[in-house]
Amino acid sequence: MTNSIHSPKRSFWIKLSHALLAIAVLHQLVASALMTIPWDKGGSPFSYGLFEYHEIVGIVSLGLILVLIFGLWNHRSERMGAPLNPWFDSNERSPLVSDFRTIISRVVTGDLPNSRDSMRIAHAVQGLGVLSILYMAVTGTLIAILGDDSPLAHDIAEFHGLGGVLVWTYFGGHAAMAIVHELKGEKLIRRMFGSN
Ligand code: HEM
Ligand code: HEM
């Protein structure tokens, strides 16, 4: 396993957009489970209202994810590369596969890796998480622009709905990993959400 990567320094904008996005996406996941979309019948005023909030928070999320991507891109020298670096850089792919094998064998034997050892994989997954949120925010904003009566908006909503499972998986897995590392005393949550 390579140890050439180090803990990244994060700008104010990365931390702010990340924290607001964490709240916004949690809102989107809860709201989407309870809301009724305008072209479906039988909802209550509350469930139709939740859709309005889903729409507004979703459009705000598009701005937030663009700020986060821009911030990460600007700091790529600090964080081993741009968000999707390991997937598109041939020099990064084989260390990623070898780290993945090592991590699996360590987890199987109960020897949980620390965040430094799993950093390359974490970054690769975070890149995919950023892409999944970008997908939801762009398709959602298109639905909002086209309007509730547009048949094309209804078709895009089908594809938007399919992305929900990606967001649930990423959000749950990413937050769970952050908590595991925090419980191990690695202070990742404090560093990501705090001022230092
Ligand atoms: C980051 C932004 C967003 C996230 C994370 C998000 C997330 C979700 C999730 C998880 C679902 C439920 C999928 C399912 O399991 O069926 C959903 C459904 C939906 N969202 Fe969003 N959403 C976002 C932005 C938006 C925006 C801006 C709109 C604009 C109108 C929108 C419109 C819809 C609609 C119409 C559905 C219902 C899709 C269907 O079931 O056919 N979303 N969204
Ligand atoms: C869908 C919403 C989220 C997205 C798109 C997202 C994305 C990211 C990205 C791209 C990074 C890497 C930042 C960098 O390298 O500078 C990161 C790091 C981190 N995120 Fe999230 N995140 C989300 C939600 C959350 C939530 C809810 C938590 C709650 C615990 C969380 C905790 C963390 C922590 C602790 C780190 C630092 C990890 C480390 O130092 O290796 N994130 N997140």
Which key features would you list for this structure?
single chain, 196 residues, mainly alpha, disordered N terminus, binds protoporphyrin IX containing FE
Instruction: Bin the helical content.
Output: over 70%
Question: Main beta sheet, described?
Answer: none
Name every ligand kind in the structure: protoporphyrin IX containing FE
Structural class: mainly alpha
- The number of distinct β-strands equals 0
Radius of gyration: 19 Å
Number of helices: 8
How would you spell out the order of helices and strands? HHHHHHHH
Unreliable residue stretches: 1-6
Number of domains: 1
Question: What order do the helices and strands come in, and which of them pair?
Answer:
Blueprint: H1 12-34, H2 45-74, H3 85-88, H4 90-108, H5 119-146, H6 151-162, H7 164-183, H8 188-193
Bound molecules: protoporphyrin IX containing FE (2 copies).
The site of one protoporphyrin IX containing FE has 23 residues, from helix 1, helix 2, helix 5, helix 6 and helix 7.
Brief description of this entry?
With 196 residues, the chain is mainly alpha-helical.
Describe this structure in words.
The protein is mainly α and 196 residues long. It has one domain. It has eight helices and no strands. α1 runs antiparallel to α2, α2 packs across α5 and α5 runs antiparallel to α7. It is elongated, with a radius of gyration of 19 Å. 18% of the residues are buried. Bound molecules: protoporphyrin IX containing FE (2 copies). One protoporphyrin IX containing FE binds next to α1, α2, α5, α6 and α7.
